[in-house]
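Database export, one record per block. Field names are fixed; values are copied verbatim from the stored entry.
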Amino acid sequence: MQVSERMPRDQRLVLIIAILASFVSFLDGTVVNVALPAISEELGGGLVTQQWVVDAYLITLGALILVAGSLSDVFGRLLILRVGLIGFGLTSIAIAVAPDPLFLIIARAAQGIAGALLVPSSLALIMSNFRGAAQGRAIGIWTAATTGAMVVGPVLGGVFVDLLSWRLVFLINVVPIAVTLWLMAVLGHRDHRLAGARVDWIGAVLCTVGLGGIVYALIEQGNFGWSSPAIWGTMTIGVVAFAGFLVRQHLARDPMMPLGLFRVRNFWTGNITTAFVYAALSLNGLVVVVYLQQGAGLPATLAGLASLPVTLLMIALSSRAGDLAGRWGPRVFMTVGPLIMAVGAALLLTVSTDFDYWLQVLPSMIVFGFGLAITVSPLTAAILGAIEPARSGIASAVNNAVARVAGLIAVAALGVIVGGELDLAGFHRAIVVTAVLLAIGGVVSLVGIRNPVPERVE
């Protein structure tokens, strides 16, 4: 990470705190995917356990990440960030000692609650402390630095799984959590609270029940069948509860997801793009690292290293892409980036039973990584830049919720997509779905995103 020498001390500290706090959440996501085969081998449950380990976290994260915006307004961003960091550390320890799948899944759900407090508060700190071109550059630095978790997570996770235990990979984040808490004490900023703000707990319950019912039906349909009341019943409850959540947001005095935000063109269009792109990212990230271990026979370390080119390109180019998007506008980056990613994903269709990483996987990683690098920073800047700074916390929370829920649904639908087993044919089906989702994301940006009018210099 390179922070400009001209950046004031407090801004440097804010940026580092935001990076480290988000790093914890991103690190966990990359570590989990690499560890999934080892987890299911020791604790049992196969693909269903693997899906629940990912989605238990995403259910509470996706539902409560919206509450985090309101909590930040009521109690202050720094306080909520501290609570999230401490909670994340404690639940990481619980996951590391899990004796069975049920305990692990419950601990992952609790970890999602803590994780919901981290990323929105981190981005809100950046949005409230940086303005103009500096804001775009700060978001670019944040994106590049936090994607370092994409390097550290898979590689360290793979090494730990192969040489030590999958349990220890969940303790990797203890150090960044401790450093972040110390830096927050050094910063010494006072929290700002919004007078009269409230937390929409009814909305939180409806959202959690809605997502939980839908995800349960998608994951467990392979065991019970769609005709089972346990499946169509929970799906119905989930859909009705989520519809009730949307109605609640329209009627509530202090909604956790103000629907008025979606009247802003770049905000609603950017969030649609986010949904398609992050659904594809979650699906791709899971099936590639799991198939490389279970299908291609690679050890966890090599499976973790397989996507290293993607991360290196993110680190090298994200800051520059954020800077250029601040000058030229985000539309071209948000259009071209996902389309390039779609091509990169499609290259994985060359993977065959005669596996060759260098010819079948590496070209995909390079193309995919380039597209991702020019997409993420402009996408984030376009969405948050469309909303006034005073509402940046809730705007960030909504955008992150959209991303997490999209990933949640994609992972929950994995069994349907691959036909119940992640063999070569199932892998190819998942790759086709990934490419289609990315292509749709690019087209949505082309049609919907508008570049902001440059400010006139007096």
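Remark 1: The chain has a mean pLDDT of 83.
Remark 2: The first helix runs from residue 9 to 43.
End of record.
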